[in-house]
Amino acid sequence: MKAIVMSGFGEAEQLVARDVAEPAQRPGWVTVKLEASALNWHDVLVRRGLYRSPLPHTPGADGAGIRTDTGEQVVITPSLFWGKRTEAPAADFEILGDATAGTYAEYVSVPEECVLPKPEGYSWEQAAALGLVGITCYRALVTRAALAAGESLLIVGAGGGVSTMAQALGCAIGADVFVTASGVGKLDRARASGASGGVLHDDDGWPERARVLAPGADGFDVILDPVGLWSHSVRALRPGGRLVVLGANVAEQVTMDVRPFFFGQYSLLGTTMGSPQDFSGLLGLIAAGDVPPPTIDSVFSLNEAAAAHRRLESGQAIGKIVLRN
Questions:
Q1: If 198 and its partner were Cys, which of 59, 91, 179, 231 is the partner (CB 3.0–4.6 Å)?
Q2: Checking phi first, is residue 319 left (phi over 0); if not, alpha (psi -120 to 50) or beta?
Q3: Within 13 Å, how many C-alpha atoms sit on residue 252's CB side?
């Protein structure tokens, strides 16, 4: 089969198409003939060596295709070995494409619990784009933050796959959704997709500008921070609000004032990925017709994985970037 193989860590040029053996059959695992796979920023970090993947290695967390044993159309959840506890993953948890060969290929092998029915009406590209961002956002907003209809939600950093999915879920739940963005174009697209408003995060004063947009002008019930700007984001919370954090691509270290935090009665909720149970909950929302398909920015062929990564790293994408077999 054809697969994208990294022989070393580094720039996008490390992603090279090669002929490799198809996955071996093993008990409890299924093989999926992939129709499409989707990119995540996580894949960039794998490529750069942050997760110390074994080399040579095929990255990729997201995919959708056809089970070779049953012929069913399925979508893959990239959460491997979550374990029995719903509160947090087990010690051997991993994301597909870290240590286990991923979805930048014609075939992939995953535990059977990690394949679920492809949502009705979704294209292969949309289904492939659902996995990581869908399960991550559902766990962040529903399982962890318990976001409810009528509450206000601020999403930091409009435009990417996580933020566009989070906006769709927030609107489906019935929350009043706002965003921050790096440019006017991304702000306008968020409004066109259902956001009530937003601000540019082009200077350190953006939390105060965002705060007054919330109903009551005293801050947001929930803030989703997928980039690592906790010390800024917390300033836009209402007293007693919840800050949900799940990424660090802008900042990996945070300095925060302790006294304002505990006097504000804030909750800080860490989260990442989600369990197969979370993914089933997401599919239930989708089946109810409340969640639109993921926004697709662009589609590349499998051979163009390096170009697709360069598009992702440009920061210009609106929604998900997909590889098509």
A1: 179
A2: left
A3: 2
Residue 249 has what pLDDT? 67
Task: Please determine, looking at this structure, whether the domain spanning 2-130+293-324 carries the CATH number 1.20.58.760.
Answer: no
Q: Which residues of the chain have pLDDT under 50?
A: none
Domain ranges of the chain: 2-130+293-324, 136-270
**Neighbouring C-alpha atoms within 13 Å toward the C-beta of 202:** 8
State the CATH class of domain 136-270: alpha beta
Cα three-residue angle 262-222-254, rounded to 5 degrees: 55
The radius of gyration computed from the CA coordinates of the chain, to the nearest angstrom, equals 19
| Angle, helices 131-138/161-173, rounded to nearest 10 degrees | 50
The DSSP secondary structure of 276-311, one letter per residue, reads HHHHHHHHHHHHTT-SPPPPEEEEEEGGGHHHHHHH
Q: What totals of helices (H) and strands (E) does the chain contain, helices first?
A: 10, 17
pLDDT, residue 40, reads 92
Per-residue pLDDT at 130: 94
- Taking the C-alpha atoms of residue 293 and residue 291, their distance in angstroms, rounded to an integer, is 7
Task: Provide the pLDDT for residue 170.
Answer: 94
* Residue 48: count of CB within 10 angstroms of its CB: 12
